[in-house]
Amino acid sequence: MRKLFGGLSIVLLIGATTIAGALYATQPTMPHGAMAQMHVSEQSFSQVERGRYLTTVGDCAACHTDTQGGAPFGGGRAIETPFGLVLAPNITPDRETGIGGWSDAEFANALQHGVSKDGHMLYPAMPYVYYTKAHRSDINAIRAYLSTVTPVHNKVVANQLPFPFNIRLAMRAWNALYFRAGGFQQDTAQNADWNRGAYLVQSLEHCGACHTPKSVLGGDKTSEAFQGYAIQGWFAPNITGDMRRGIGTWSVDDIVVYLQTGHNKQAAASGPMAEEVDQSSSRMPVDDLRAMAVYLKSIPGQDDSVKPLDASDPMMQAGRAIYDDSCAACHKTNGAGIAGLFPTLRAAPAVQSREATSLMRVVLDGAKSAATDKAPTGAAMPSYAWQLDDAQVAAVLTYIRNAWGNQAPAVSASEVASMRANLMTQPN
Amino acid sequence: MRNLHRRELLATSAFILFGSTFARAGIIQGSLPWAPGAGAPPIRVLPGPWHFFTPAEGRAVEALVDRMIPPDPETPGGRDAGCAVFIDRQLAGPYGRSEGLYVSGPFRTGTKQQGAQSPLTPAMQYRKALAEIDAYCKATYGGRTFADVEDSEKDKIIGALETGELKLSGVDPKVFFTTLLKNTREGFFGDPIYGGNRDMVAWKMIGFPGARYDYSDWIDRHNERYPHPPIGITGAPSWSPR
Amino acid sequence: MRKLPHKDVVIIGLGWTGSIMAHGLADAGLDVIAIERGPWRDTATDYPPSYAPDEYRYRIQHELFLRPAQTTFTFRNTMKQDALPIRSWGAFMPPNGVGGGGVHWNAEMWRFAPTDFVIKTHLTERYGEKFLPEDMTIQDWGVTYDEIEPYYDKFEYLCGTSGTAGNIKGQIMPGGNPFEGPRSRAYPTPAQKQPYNATLFAKAATDLGYKPFPQPSGNMSQAYTNPLGVEMGPCTFCGYCEWFGCGNYSKSSPQTTILPVLVRQQNFTARDNCEVTRILLDASGKRATGVVFVDTSGEEWEQPADMVLLCAYTIFNVQLLMLSGVGKIYDPVADEGTIGRNFTHQTVGTATGFFDPKKFIFNPFIASGAIGMCIDEFNSDNFDHGPLGFVGGGYMGQVQTNGRPIETTPVPPGTPTWGAKWKQAVKENYQSTVYSGSGVHGSFYSYRDVYLDLDPVYKDRLGRPLLRITMDLHDNELKMSAYLTDKYAEIIKAMGAQMVVKKPRTGPYDVAEYQTTHLCGGAIMGTDPKTSAVNRYLQSWDVPNLFVLGASSFPQNHGYNPTGTLAALAYWSLEAIKTQYLKNPGPLVHA
Question: Cβ C233–A381 below 8 Å, yes or no?
């Protein structure tokens, strides 16, 4: 299950369209063989190779490949939205069920303006609000690469949603509010690394899709870009240069190693980020990762420090007892963890995040950290749902958020209770 | 298989724990199997009526375990520590049915070195032996059951089971004594989650810290008493905010 | 029976040897499938720190082991007796599931001594042929210490082994075992810190003129990243190690050293909960064509393959060879046949020391699986056996792995087994007793009448005959155990014990009493196809595309834990397969 888009209220206003419905080619223009041949012959090898790389950067396969043994880019993966599931479409060059019949311009229009070949407005689970900033040459390269993948005949009936969520018209209103078409603008005051990083982060990498807070309508709050957002049961943490909640204390190398391996000496990627590392950033060259790190660290944080809870607080005392007895065997009594294996909790941005969504989830459900060729271990956190009650989960999280110099709001038993209820009803 | 479903993982553990149903065969490729919430945590024994024992059997076993491990001023005896509850729940479960053991015949008497060969499950052993012991007591002590005879008489009877002097019909007294002693100690010293060792009394008695997992700071503190109280699998009172 | 697509290699059992071979051969580009009888197991899902420390479940109820209902063995002491089935496990604990014994072992990481590999030659040269008992059937291994030293090293570095080297390239190192064979380099991580009882043992041993050293340990003294890139954490001395899985990635196991990399290999697949029921041979009987396995629904599958690697636990290896008709089953009367011969175990003794409770607090629960201080003066042929009238020996040490109270509440002799006096004695002695389960870890040499064959009466759930164990302790081993236990008790006494209770191994061999899980032999390696089942590369003499890994290949068992050696032999065999066999499939040794 891929979860990309949050915010329940958006549904009420605009309903939902379906990605596949929008991208589905209805008007074949040319026999399939001829089309495929034309693309291959027209495109140079280097463009295809660049496209292959950019497709990895954009992590297209993540949504457009069914994890239950589906062919690459063959579509069919369920994308969870607050009102139900939509299925990602087939983007192989199959003429009938894929995008083999699309022109490059139609392809670019879909990626960069959210309008499909037949004029449907795309649902913004397709990150066109970010892809719009990509250079057209990059979009063309992606298209060139996708034209070379094995065509798969797989008709995806994307719109699984009942009325009224299938109303597409409202997308126009939404776009008017949140979509700004147009390419990436260089900042001449910054160096080339910064600009390259900013371009990747803002466009194809679409980091903001998860990490930027959203309005009630699900649009990006651009003034709070990259300051963290709770999305479908995970909190995509603050990735600005903020020294407490962001990654300001991480060196550029720390960030590069994290994106490359899923681990660094402080932290481990799990949940959707583990998937992103596996599918995308672990396959990117160091130069691009370094550029992204430079850019992200330059984004100013927002000082919203909270007074830490006193150690004598009953929650802190119970939390400390649980921590020392249950958590210290891996994360160590002083919260230092073990580099590469057990994340550091002391001075950790993810631990001090504004919302404790991911923390609650990880304690209740457990979590598997990213496994990559460079860091294959993929250690997992066990589930504590059977052992700790809501008050105990709240206590231990409150403790780690306020121990060792950490500062973050307390976690309440009722928050834990609702997370527990959500996890029980959510499909794996 | 990229994601093993929680259900399958649970089925796997069910076999491990109970030995009766097979886990489903699976294929593993690409990544380590993992699923949210996966695991096979133990199931807590809850207080309440006997699951296996009849009321008379329950009284007899409580009396037996309370003589095997008698109360003293500092530490409760076997009964108040929950040993009888532990044994009851075990006999009602896979252990009582010899689940997972090799129970095919023929059953022959062998040497001591060949190990136990009885066709009786632990549950059957208890049922027969307890009835026999009460019958013996009624006949010998004026109609009183084991639970009702004097402590000194109880001790004499247990001693006679241990030596095999007290003959029981259909069950070897020494074998039953060995099983009872083993189960009583298991209940006394096992994790409280299984119904015995109530409030971790047995662990407190000897200074065993229980289900702790980290003595990194203590490995080189030699000849010094470990100061922290025991914790069980389900934690300790200090875990709940007050 | 349904037939699956062909594979280059099928591996039976995914424990230590199966994992090592699977990784090496997949790495060499072969298409490998491993078939494991038990379930997949992993740290966070099967033995997390939250419920791993459960003595009743794991130690008493045997959670991680095979269920006898699935298959068991019959046992008798002598050929004159009728064998009876082992209905619940006692003397040894057959592993089950991915990781095999590597999940629940202590991680005691030893190398055999150089003379152990040429024991027959060595003892004969030193003491004369007549010194050995007539029915003793010990053999040289066909491989030397020097040949497999690089592979010991490889396994120790895979596992991050914590220890103090005693002999680096011939130079004796302070603090290590001066009797060990030369090693090419130091252990990858320093020795673990030692608890009070072990430091007292080391001091007493030094005072008596011995050279104590820390037990080499697969429990990590510090975080470690192995050559495959897999990371382990430091051991936290929880005292729930052997019989248990490790909850914090600090005990070396296939899970914590190989499997994360193995599963990423595109040409590797594993099937769990599938039991191989026989190795298939072609009409000539000289070539394996694959295996048959049964899944949990009872369905039979054929997995064809070019090579078959038998990587199960010792006696399951032997059983599968017999049930598949590979080689000839050993007949002790005619002294013919190779499958089932030279079956051995371990001769374990110990001594318990009771100390003054007012002066000693040992905190016995603070321990790892392979912690403690040892001496090697009485192992192998490190001492003159001439006046003693026996051969063999063992390491000894204060290796106390736990203070779990169902198992480890020793009371002085004469204490009643129940009642107020027992309770009082438990309370008084718990903190002040040293109790090392296998303090004296003696060798178990091979004999003509200690062997394996198929039982004529008892069957498993699939209707196959159970394997029959005929085993007893011989005078040589009993004398050895008595002598070593005396020496051991002297050290315990010198630690300051008020009372020492000696427990040398005594006969007859008792299948109901736990000794170790170090069953060895039955499909032994050697240089002569008449007296060994596999050649020096663990390749079957009878079926050259079948390799039989594990301790089943040990011609006799020596005075150390077997895992280091069986893993080194796996790497040795792997190297031969990669560099010789794959280029020219066929017998690697022509006898």
Answer: no
Q: Report the b/e string of A40-78 with b at 16+ CB within 10 A.
A: eeebeeebbebbbbbbbbbbbbbbbbbeeebbebbbbbb
> Nearest to residue C12, comparing CAs of C217, C276, C325?
C276
Query: Bridge partners of C268?
Result: C32
Question: Which residues of C have a catalytic role annotated?
Answer: 518
d(CA C513, CA B116): 11
- Pick the residue of A260, A324, A330 with the most C CBs within 10 A to test the interface with C by mutation: A330
Give alpha helix (H) positions in A332-380: 357-365
Domain borders along chain C are: 2-78+89-581
B29 Cβ contact partners less than 8 Å away, ≥ 6 residues apart: B1, C263, C268, C269, C270
CA C191 to chain centre: 21
Question: Cα separation of C30 and C548, whole Å?
Answer: 18
Q: Which CATH class is domain A192-298?
A: mainly alpha
Query: Which one of B206, B225, B228, B234 makes the best mutation probe of the C interface by having the most chain C beta carbons within 10 Å?
Result: B206
Residue C59, C-beta contacts closer than 8 angstroms, at least 6 positions apart: C243, C244, C404, C406, C407
Which alpha helices (DSSP H) does A285-388 contain, by range? 286-298, 314-322, 328-331, 357-365
Show the tokens assigned to C1: 């029976």
Report the DSSP beta bridge partners of residue C168: C171, C183
The rounded radius of gyration (Å) of the Cα atoms in chain C is 23
What CATH class is the domain A314-425?
A: mainly alpha
What ipTM was assigned to the predicted interfaces of this complex? Answer: 0.95
What's the gap in Å between the CA of C97 and the closest CA on chain B? 10
> Which residues in chain A touch residue C248, judged by CB atoms under 8 angstroms apart?
329-330, 342
Are A321 and B36 an interchain contact pair (Cβ–Cβ within 8 Å)?
Answer: no
Chain A residues whose CB is inside 8 A of the C247 CB are 329, 382
pTM of the model: 0.92
C577: helix, coil or strand?
A: helix
Give the separation between CA B101 and CA A65, rounded to whole angstroms.
47
pLDDT along chain A (428 residues), means of 10: 38 32 31 41 73 89 84 84 71 90 90 83 80 90 90 77 56 73 86 94 91 84 90 89 92 96 93 91 94 95 79 95 97 95 94 94 96 95 96 98 95 96 76
Q: Which residues of B touch C82 (CB under 8 A)?
A: 108, 110
Dihedral of CA atoms C445, C451, C452, C454 in degrees, nearest 10, equals: -170
Closest by CA position to A184, among listed A198, A173, A171? A198
Q: Is the separation of the CB atoms in C548 and C587 below 8 Å?
A: no
What single-letter DSSP state applies at residue C22?
Answer: H
Cβ–Cβ under 8 Å, residues B61 and B88: yes
Topology of the domain covering C2-78+89-581:
FAD/NAD(P)-binding domain (3.50.50)
Tokens of C391: 């051969």
Task: Show the tokens assigned to B237.
Answer: 């009172």
Question: Are the beta carbons of A309 and A402 closer than 8 angstroms?
Answer: yes
